[in-house]
């Protein structure tokens, strides 16, 4: 495997390519990053707890989408995603999968 290096700030194409390489190398958790999480989680610790629930339940990676409050978790299969959605408590969950033009709701 090739070692993954952090790309230069400001070069979004290079950062995106590096994230794809990390996911392909099995490092999804390292590839998913949202710098807005730090200030948002500071003000809304319940969101940080929800993200941790996703990880503890078995998601390969979890992060906040945009500036929040939506969180997402990446799973290896639909079956795994459905299992994880069942064990998450205190939050509304949806299970979706990717399709060529976005996502499609499963549950």
Labels describing this entry:
single chain, 107 residues, alpha+beta, two-stranded antiparallel ribbon, 4 strands, 44% helix
Describe the structure concisely for a colleague.
The protein is of the alpha+beta class and 107 residues long.
Order of helices and strands: HHHHEEHEE
Low-confidence stretches: none
Q: Biggest β-sheet: count, sense, barrel?
A: 2 strands, antiparallel
- Quick one: how many beta strands? 4
Strand content: 5-15%
Strand order of the largest sheet: 1-2
The end-to-end distance, rounded to whole angstroms, is 36 Å
Can you put this structure into words, describing what you see?
With 107 residues, this protein is α+β, with helices and mostly antiparallel strands. The protein is 44% helix and 15% strand. The protein has five helices and four strands; from the N terminus they run ααααββαββ. The strands form two sheets. The protein has a two-stranded antiparallel sheet with strand order 1-2. Strand 1 and strand 2 form a beta hairpin. Helix 3 crosses helix 4. The chain is globular, with a radius of gyration of 15 Å. The termini are far apart. The mean pLDDT is 83.
